[in-house]
């Protein structure tokens, strides 16, 4: 229902607003203005007070800093901080330098190993391209090896090293120059001396391997130590010391000196035959095929290194194959060139041993003569005398 406002109430409200409301609003406005003024004044007073206090604090601190004792304390703190910072920096730099040095050392080690491997690789490549490398001693003519040494003693260093080692610590070892030795050890020693002809033998190496190394070197020579030219004359002179002496004088100086050196070593070994089981004839049977062989036929006494012959070998078997010095050191299972056979003269005193190797009895007698009559044949003042 719509509300009904009486005329009386309307009149009363109009009277109220016209009389008291206006007065109250005016009073409220005046009160608010007074309050705001007071607040503003208080805020200004507070700001002024705060500014004064801050100024006093700054002045007091500045005055404190101006005092000598305070200034000195601040300076000491700054110096201490600077020193600490410098120490840390130096420590960091030192550690960095240390790491750089370690890194440099490692890099140098890697570079050195890489250079060595590269050198070995280049040496192998050179050998493959030219047959032998410029530093090789195995498979190189003996006069070339001695010339490279630039020594007053015209004997290959590898033989000198082997002989010295055997004289000092190997004469009592059984089967010297007969035993096959350790194939891998011999291969390693061949590689060592091909890179450095003046290398030392490893400490503790087996004397049997050292003797086998000396045989391997002699077998690797492109021409026999006694030369192909004097082959027949030397074989025919074993019964005469005088004839043998005169024929050997015709050898090249390097060959003659080396032959004297080797047979002097064999003589010393034979003098210990009760212990090493190798008398002059036993040694001659092992050394003769290495130093006396005809042109076109390489010594093949190391053939048994790679393949053992059957027990049924006989005199009617085919002539054995010819092997080069590098064929002797080939890995097991590798194919060996069988294109050339050792040519045999009809009149040559030869036979085949139980192991299938060719035996030249005249050559053996020559070596026996050189051992047993060494001092009578090699009468030079510089002949080798073992103590």
Structure description:
- With 387 residues, the chain is an all-alpha fold.
- The chain folds into two domains: 46-131; 142-377, Rho GTPase activation protein (Phosphatidylinositol 3-kinase, Chain A), CATH 1.10.555.
- Helix content is 63%, strand content 2%.
- It has helices at 7-66, 68-130, 142-149, 157-169, 183-195, 207-220, 231-235, 241-248, 253-270, 273-276, 280-291, 303-306, 325-328, 361-372, 374-377, and strands at 350-352, 358-360.
- The chain has a two-stranded antiparallel ribbon.
- α5 (183-195) packs across α6.
- It is rod-shaped.
- InterPro entries: RhoGAP_dom.
Briefly characterize the structure.
This protein is mostly helical and 387 residues long. 63% of the residues lie in helices and 2% in strands. It is rod-shaped, with a radius of gyration of 53 Å.
CATH architecture grouping of the largest domain: Orthogonal Bundle
The beta-strand count equals 2
Quickly give the structural class. mainly alpha
Computed Rg: 53 Å
Query: How many distinct folded domains?
Result: 2
CATH class (first level) name of the largest domain: Mainly Alpha
Strand order of the largest sheet: 1-2
Average pLDDT figure: 75
Helix content: 55-70%
What share of residues are in beta strands? under 5%
- Give start-end ranges of low-pLDDT stretches: 302-348, 352-356
Reported by name, the CATH topology of the largest domain is Phosphatidylinositol 3-kinase, Chain A
Morphology: rod-shaped
Distance between the amino and carboxyl termini: 154 Å
Order of helix and strand elements from N to C terminus: HHHHHHHHHHHHHEEHH
Major β-sheet profile: 2 strands, antiparallel
Organism: Carya illinoinensis
Protein name: Rho-GAP domain-containing protein
InterPro entries: RhoGAP_dom (IPR000198)
Domain Rho-GAP: 140-337
